[in-house]
Design goal:
The chain has about 350 residues and is an alpha/beta fold. It folds into 2 domains: about 260 residues, TIM Barrel (Alpha-Beta Barrel); about 60 residues, Helicase, Ruva Protein, domain 3. It has 14 helices and 8 strands. The protein has an 8-stranded parallel beta barrel with strand order 1-2-3-4-5-6-7-8, surrounded by 5 helices. Helix 4 links the parallel strand 3 and strand 4. The longest helix has 15 residues. The radius of gyration is 19 Å and the shape is globular.
Length: about 350
C-alpha cells in the first residue's frame, strides 16, 4: 500500500551520472540537445555536470571535456521551464570556486552529498544554499554501509542545516528489496521532509527498487534516461514513469518526451549499450561504488589479475568514491599474492 499520493518528483541525472559512462566527455551540443527535449516535460530538475559533481574534473577521477561553467551555461540556455540542478560532493568542490559561480550561472537546485556517515561535512554548503533560498537536498551516498538508525541521524543533521529533502543513494547498486523498504520506511516515518531514492542497476533492480522506495513513502526519484550512468547504470526513468503510469501512481511527466530524449539524444551519446554485465554484478555484490568499474578493469588488465577478485577485495576494505587511488595498490597486492602461489 502506498503511503503517499502526491505526484512523484523526478530528478533527472542523465547529464551528471551518465558522464561516468563516457569518461566525462559530454559535449555542449549533447547537453543542449538533451535539455531541449526534456524541458517542460514535468521533470523537476535536470542535474548537469561531471559525474562526481562541481569541481571534480581531475586526473584522479576523470577530466571533463568542457568546464563546469560551459556545461551549466549550455543547459541554462536550453531549459526554459524545467529547473537546472547541480551536484556538489564535499571534498571536490568549494563555495568560492564552484558553488557561487554555479549559482551565478542560474542553477536553481543543488544536491549536496556526502558519505552516508559523514553528513557533518555538508553543513557549510547546505547552510550557504539555504540562506540564499536555493532549493537544496541532502544526499547520503553508499547507504548500504550503515544502519537505518545511523542514516536517520545523519539525515536529521542535513535537515537541521537547511536541506529541504533527503536522497538515499545506492551508489554501489548493492541494495536488496528488504533493505530499500526498511530504510525508506524508517526515514519517511521519522523525517518531516520528503525522502528520495537514487538506484543503480548492478543487480538489475534499479527500477524495481525505485518502485519499492515509492511504495515505502519516497516521493522523489533520481534516475537517468536510458539508465545512462556509472557501472551498470541507473534507474531508467522512462521505464519507471511508464510503470508508475500503468500502476495508476501519480507522476506528472510526459513519457513521450523522455522516450524521444532517449532515442534521439542519449542513444547517440552512449559509446555502448548500458548493461548489467558480469563485472557490474560482482561490483553490486561487493558493495563498491559503480564508478570504480573502469579503474578496476584497467588495473586488472595491467597487473594480470581477475577483476572480480579485485572488486571483492575492495568491498572488504569498504572503499568509497574518491578513493580511486587505492585500486592500483590493491591490484598490486593481489598480483603479488598470485605470484607466490
Amino acid at each position: 500500500m502506498f503511503m503517499k499520493k502526491e505526484p512523484i518528483k523526478i530528478i533527472d541525472s542523465t547529464l551528471r551520472d551518465g558522464s561516468h559512462a563516457i569518461r566525462h566527455q559530454l559535449s555542449r551540443e549533447a547537453i543542449s540537445a538533451y535539455c531541449e527535449k526534456v524541458d517542460g516535460s514535468g521533470i523537476h530538475a535536470v542535474v548537469v555536470g561531471h559525474g562526481n559533481g562541481l569541481g571534480a574534473s581531475s586526473i584522479q577521477v576523470g577530466l571533463s571535456a568542457i568546464s563546469d561553467g560551459e556545461m551549466l551555461s549550455a543547459a541554462r540556455q536550453a531549459l526554459k521551464k524545467t529547473k537546472l540542478g547541480a551536484f556538489f560532493l564535499a571534498g571536490f568542490a568549494t563555495i568560492e570556486d564552484d558553488l557561487a559561480p554555479a549559482l551565478a550561472l542560474g542553477v536553481d537546485m543543488v544536491c549536496v552529498a556526502s558519505h552516508c556517515t559523514e553528513a557533518d561535512v555538508t553543513q557549510q554548503y547546505i547552510s550557504y544554499l539555504s540562506e540564499r533560498s536555493v532549493e537544496v537536498y541532502g544526499v547520503l551516498m553508499m547507504y548500504h554501509l550503515t544502519t537505518k538508525e545511523v542514516l536517520l541521524e545523519e539525515a536529521k543533521k542535513m535537515v537541521s542545516y537547511g536541506a529541504q529533502g533527503i536522497l538515499i543513494m545506492d551508489s554501489a547498486g548493492a541494495s536488496t528489496p528488504p533493505l530499500v523498504r526498511e530504510t525508506i520506511s524508517h526515514l519517511v516515518e521519522h523525517l518531516d521532509v520528503p525522502v528520495g531514492f537514487h538506484g543503480h542497476d548492478n543487480l538489475a533492480m534499479a527500477v524495481g527498487h525505485s518502485y519499492m522506495a515509492i511504495e515505502s513513502g519516497a516521493t522523489i526519484i533520481d534516475g537517468t534516461t536510458r539508465g545512462f550512468g556509472a557501472g551498470a547504470g541507473n534507474c531508467q526513468l522512462e521505464a519507471l514513469v511508464a510503470l508508475l503510469q500503468k500502476s495508476g501512481i501519480p507522476v506528472d511527466v510526459d513519457l513521450y518526451a523522455l522516450l524521444d530524449a532517449s532515442e534521439d539524444v542519449v542513444r547517440g551519446i552512449m559509446t555502448k549499450p548500458q548493461e548489467t554485465d558480469a563485472i557490474s554484478i560482482v561490483s553490486g555484490m561487493a558493495g563498491v561504488f559503480s564508478g570504480f568499474k573502469m579503474p578496476v578493469l584497467r588495473a586488472a588488465e595491467r597487473f594480470g589479475i581477475d577483476a572480480r577478485d579485485l572488486f571483492m577485495e575492495l568491498g572488504k576494505r569498504k572503499v568509497v568514491g574518491g578513493q580511486e587511488d587505492i585500486v592500483i595498490e590493491v591490484a598490486m597486492e593481489l598480483a603479488e599474492k598470485n605470484a607466490q602461489k
